[in-house]
Amino acid sequence: MSKQPELIQPDRGQNAVSIHLVNKDGFADWAKSLTRGQRAALEAQKFDGSGYQVGIVPDGDDWFAVGGVANPDSLSSWCMAKLAEVLPEGTYRRANGEPGSALFGWQTAQYRFTRYKDDDKAAGARVLLTRDAKAIEPAIAEAQAAMKVATLVNTPAEDMGPAALEAEVEALAKAHKAKLSVTKGEALEREYPMVHAVGRAAAREHAPRLLHLTWGDEKNPVLAIVGKGVCFDSGGLDIKGATGMALMKKDMGGAAHAIALAGLIMGAGLKVRLHLLVPAVENAIAGNAFRPGDVLASRKGLTVEIGNTDAEGRLILGDALTRASEEKPDLIIDFATLTGAARVALGPDLPALMARRDATAQALIEAGKAHDDEPWRLPLPEAYNEYLKSDIADTNNAATNGYAGASVAGLFLDKFVGDGIDWAHFDTFAWRPAAKPGRPKGGAALGLRAAWHMLQTRYG
């Protein structure tokens, strides 16, 4: 991620270019206030107030900008994002109101992943002013968390393996004076046998581990955040094809969400006892790889027959969810790039949400709708547990049919969450296949804002 000054700054009356926001229905009336030359300039640019249009209007020796939005009175996160992408470097303010929700997209629109290649086409920073001083710090923190997810997911597996994920969590712990414990080697095999089994075929430098960060007053309600950290997924012995493997650097997207969310929680000082758990592995192929038909032990004590080595994310999450449950948490939220079935059902933009309690699911959905990060709830039908039956073990890790793949994966996870615990599961894509204003192509935070705003309401 390129280094930039803070893109949202307080409005103290400093020089800034004005931005007028109009929609198509109101454009004609608004344009009556312009000079003939200004209207001609907009006409030449074919500006009519349609969404995401940007117009430049001369104003004597100066100029101002016009942006087309759906509703100037109710801005979404993305209403000003196109402006942030295409306007020249400089400082701007909204002329006819405050940017509100658009503070988020103004920042994410300027995100660039430049670790391996300079972005020569990127303009300098475009700074947006606001008179709402209280909105600045939360807006910056939230956008930086989303961009953290993008950067972690965009980084190739060789540079974002289990050790690199550990370094990220270690840096987070140091920043917030949290405690980090790391379990690997023989201790991992003993305490988290499914995490060890999935990751044992990886090279030594990508050895599996369980990362466990704790923070906050022990008297506060326990909140557990769990993230799937499969840093690369070959599919194991049930190997993926080339197309399926091409994007598997993003299979640690759940861990990226969990790490970013933990940072938001600690940064805001939420009144919780936080447990962040990230099982970090590479699902590799070698002579010691776990096999189809193997039966694995688990931390929970359940035995798991392996119907498919490419259903590995749910295995490592099972051990992590068991550990989270041992703290008797008030709530567990997990994030995982778990199933292709969720993408078939919902496409790339909607994270699938599964939850034990209706009230928790509804709170997450409402928070997501309010902040342009809507999840879509999928069921956890008890009847589909029969798809996970095994003749020789307590459960199989994969169904033999193609039915309800996302929900069946959720049902597998549910077996490892303690009885009666409030639990929500995000099956997120963590990737955007095509750019939209404020939402660059590549790694993407999907479900992060829904979870964050729900948690602020619940524990703030």
From TrEMBL:
One of its GO terms (cellular component) is cytoplasm. GO terms for biological process: proteolysis. The keyword GTP-binding does not apply. Pfam families: Peptidase_M17, Peptidase_M17_N_1. Residues 308-315 form the Cytosol aminopeptidase domain. The keyword Hydrolase applies. GO terms for molecular function: manganese ion binding; metalloaminopeptidase activity. InterPro entries: Leucine_aapep/pepB, Macro_dom-like, Peptidase_M17_C, Peptidase_M17_N_1. It comes from the Bacteria. Keywords: Aminopeptidase, Hydrolase, Manganese, Protease. Belongs to the peptidase M17 family. This is Leucyl aminopeptidase family protein. The lineage of its organism: Bacteria, Pseudomonadati, Pseudomonadota, Alphaproteobacteria, Sphingomonadales.
